[in-house]
Amino acid sequence: MMARLMPFALLAASLWLWSAIGLLPLARWPAWPLDPAGMDISQILLAFGLMPRGVVALLAGAILGLSGAILQVVLRNPVADPTTLGVSAGAQLALVLATMLAPGLLDEGRWPVALTGAGFAAGLVLAIGARRGFAPVTTVIAGMLVGMTASAVATAMTLAQGQYLLSLVIWNGGSLVQQDWSGVRALAAILVFGAIAAALLARPLRVLSLGPEGASGLGLNVVLVRLLAVGVAVILAAAVSAELGLIAFIGLAAPALARSLGAVSIVGLLAWSPVIGAVILSLCDGLVLLVAEQLGEMFPTGALTGLIGGPLLIWLLPRLRGSTPPGTERGEGASQRRRDPVPLLVRLALGLVIATVVLIWIGRVPGGWAVLDAESFAAFLPMRLPRLIAAASAGAALAIAGAILQRLTANPLASPEVLGVSGGAAMGYAGVVYFAAAPTAIALTAGTMSGGALALLLVAAFVSRRDMPAERVLLAGIAVSALASALLSAIMAVGDMRSFQILGWLSGSSSAMTMQGAFALAGLAVVLWMVALALRRWLAVLPLGAGVAGGLGLPLRQARMILIALAGMATGAATVLVGPLSFVGLMAPHVARRLGLARPGDHITGAALIGAGLMLVADFGARMAGFPYELPLGLFASLIGGPWLIWLMTRPAR
Amino acid sequence: MSLFSLRNLTVAVPGRCLLHELTLDLPAGQVTALIGHNGSGKSTLLKVLARQIMPSSGKVVFEERPLFAWRARDFARRLAFLPQHPPAAEGMTVRELVALGRYPWHGALGRFGPHDHAAVARAMAECGVSDLADRLVDTLSGGERQRTWLAMMVAQEAAALLLDEPISALDIAHQVEVLGLVRRICHQTGRSAVIVLHDVNMAARFCDHVVALKKGRLVLQGGPVDLMQPSPLERIYGLRMQILDGPGGNLVAIPD
Predict the structure, then answer these.
(1) Which residues of chain A are at the B interface, by a Cβ-Cβ cutoff of 8 Å?
(2) ABC transporter domain: from which residue to which, for each copy (chain B) (predicted)?
């Protein structure tokens, strides 16, 4: 293993040396001990900038590698790491909140705040995962949901405080820039703590690798060991978050590489992952330094690690062992079922129409609420109707996409957000904003749709593999999302007005909707609904798994492709309006199922109606909550949806 | 005429050969048991026959046509497959699940006609689940659920049934009930069945024909009488067994 790591370590070292010598010839390097008093400016830049930066890269990489290794071992989940479990996003959110609402909290240092946020996020994800036997894919999806919710809130806060935008975006991207050696000291102390804790936990973790039943049979306190191990991993990840920001996927990559380089035992994994993590992060940082020197553009290093993380996750997918007990990835337990769903569907549809009319009629005016009289109703109609129709259609389209995906993968956590389409669409939008001289609305729409389609193609490439279980599709989608968000934060880190435009779109808005656009979206939603209804027999058979579906002569590959394409189109179209994140696609099918709509046709129809209703409510809330200013629609939807969803998932099974 | 005819069938995964140059014929119109120790390749063989996995090399012919030349729905009209762990079928009634068996006949868009309704009703009656028609599948007991899945296969009106360990999760009374049902369905209507079984005694009692595998190779093929002797059983399982004469003329094997 040492021999195979050496070239990369040497490469990382020479990249650092390259930029160090570029800064200052070796002969003029300051002597140890470092004393700023006797140095000129380049010597200070080297001794208190570049030197600690090199060491910090090593330390942070090692800490993240160790954190990821511990999480993967304790959860028996090869795709667990601080990023995929939402831990880093939790720390990020806590820091953003503290920066804006209570800067005083940060006087004590950033660590306590970051640790609180990270711990809270980890607790939520574990609570969701525990109900599902820590099934790997489901736990990671829960982690991504918690992470995305945290990011949505953080984005909302950032948007509300434009003046902090730039520094926050750069910090979010994970920058390794150092001004002195304090970061090195802090991270070194954390690494020592982590090493001692890992050494102490190594043996209990080895017993735990037999599975919870086997381990408690051997007298191990499973809950305690899990709590301790996850606690250590969270402390490690939060420390890096506090010190450097969001550095994604090192914790995923390091143990994966350690495993593929031949570290099979748990002790080997815990020992080699930090080493490999240190090498990877140093290498990434070396590349960032090289780019900075050549182009003068300083990207945050965390954006680069995200770029590696996406492809890595994709590479890992086929290698995921089926270590999960069958059935744990799916199922919420028996849910009731309505004998005659038609009255309920009619009530839902009626409710939708009434809600639309009422929402046109009432609104806030300065100093209170007002119901429109007939005259102003006619005046307001052309303004309010398009956006209501558009919002409802987008909600319906997302809900249909979600219902299709949940049935296709037999996983109740599947949703358009985790399909990667939204991430791809965001990339397309950002691309147009940056590379078109004067982006028109049509160009933006086209860019968004084609970005979504591209992401869809990537995911579909997976689905077409014969032996790929449908739930892995979700992980492929997550990988694409990760890739997209890494690229996005790299673009945004350049930091000018265009970043602000993208941020604004990311949170979604329906204010600029024309009547034509609204009807186009509504038409699309109706077509999608009819196609989904036509394919309801597939949607009935597919949740029964590939074995049964194949046995009945269902053309599995085509069916998956067609349904994924359908869901992707629905998501792409809705994303143009509401932005990439709303949770409607996840919530609406869930609610429909809880209301007892079990047959595919009823389920799809009910989900579409509920999705439309949810989006109407979100649109109303977005207009009214911050009156006279308007909050972003998608953001508002996810602010309601995220917490509700997490509550739903942590509830005990009935 | 044979149902399946295998020539040099090999299935390999990286580092391991699951089925090794298997050549044999499975008879039509009979209930065939696939037996062998854990990891002998019996489930793998069944999955190849059901086209769930691709063989690495060799030829398989089903009803005189190469196995992989069949169109998916035509194949499903001739052959029904039940995986080892049928899913929970959450939120589905018995009637709906059985009606899914008509998919090969009407496809995604075709009309669910009177013949389909009749086939579903017949299948439910045949498997004794007519009284459960409006119950939710996930509220049934293990035996009832397995009979429902069998009814789905019967509704498929296929000439051959492939079952992967259909009784592994059932108590002994339900084991006898389910296997008896399979045997009756096949003998009354001239269907064939291939069943992966763990229990030699069940195989000997309910099946007409036995195929035994060991480490991916064929060890024995013949009737129950050929199987229920100490030396073949020792070759298959590596364990000495005694054969007792049951009162009803059944042979019973017990370990020494």
Answers:
(1) 326-327, 330-331, 334-335, 337, 410, 466, 534-535, 537-538, 540-541, 543-548, 550-555, 593, 598-599
(2) 4-240
Q: In angstroms, what separates the C-alpha of B85 from chain A's closest C-alpha?
A: 9
pLDDT single digits (tens) A244-291: 877 878 888 888 888 888 787 888 899 999 999 999 999 988 888 888
Between CA B99 and CA A201 the distance in angstroms is 54
pLDDT single digits (tens) A417-431: 777 777 788 788 888
Domain residues of chain B, as ranges? 28-54+72-226
- Identify the CA nearest to B118 among candidates B132, B104, B98, B135: B98
Give the Cα separation of A83 and A73 in Å (integer): 16
Phi, psi of A336 (to 5 degrees): -70, 165
Query: How many secondary structure helices (H) and strands (E) does chain A include?
Result: 26, 2
Chain B interface residues facing chain A, Cβ-Cβ under 8 Å?
A: 50-52, 54, 72-77, 80-83, 85-93, 96, 100-101, 103-104, 107-109, 136, 138-139, 156, 162
Cα–Cα distance measured from residue A325 to residue A625, given in angstroms and rounded to the nearest whole number? 46
Binning chain B into helix, strand and coil, the percentages to the nearest 5 are 40, 30, 30
Please report the pLDDT score of residue A232 as a whole number.
94
Residue B170 has pLDDT above 70, yes or no: yes
Angstrom distance (rounded) from CA A390 to CA A377: 19
Cβ distance B81 to A547 less than 8 Å, yes or no, reads yes
| ipTM for the predicted complex | 0.82
Q: How far is B75 from chain A (nearest CA, A)?
A: 7
Q: How far is CA A281 from the centre of its chain?
A: 21
Q: How many residues does chain A have?
A: 654
Shortest Cα distance from A419 to chain B (angstroms)? 23
Q: What pLDDT is stored for residue A580 in this prediction?
A: 66
Torsion, CA A45, CA A50, CA A52, CA A54, rounded to 10: -170
How many Å is the maximal CA-CA distance in chain B?
A: 58
**Percent of chain A topping pLDDT 90:** 16
DSSP-derived secondary structure for B181-212: HHHHHHHHHT-EEEEE-S-HHHHHHH-SEEEE
Domains of chain A: 2-28+39-315 (1.10.3470.10), 342-416+509-649 (1.10.3470.10)
Burial of A33 (0-12, 13-18, 19+ CB in 10 A): exposed
Question: CB neighbours of A547 closer than 8 A, spacing ≥ 6?
Answer: B52, B81, B83
In which band, very low, low, confident or very high, does the pLDDT at A495 lie, cut at 50, 70 and 90? low
Nearest CA to CA, how far is A406 from chain B (Å)? 13
The CATH class, in words, for B28-54+72-226 is: alpha beta
**Residue B80: strand, helix, or coil:** strand
Instruction: Identify the H or E element spanning B250.
Output: none
Cα(A577)–Cα(A612) distance, rounded to whole angstroms? 13
Tokens (6 digits) for B15 = 């580092």
Please tell me which residue of chain A has the smallest CA distance to B70.
A553
pTM of the predicted protein model: 0.79
Asked if A552 and B101 come within 8 Å (Cβ–Cβ), the reply is: yes
pLDDT for A532 equals 93
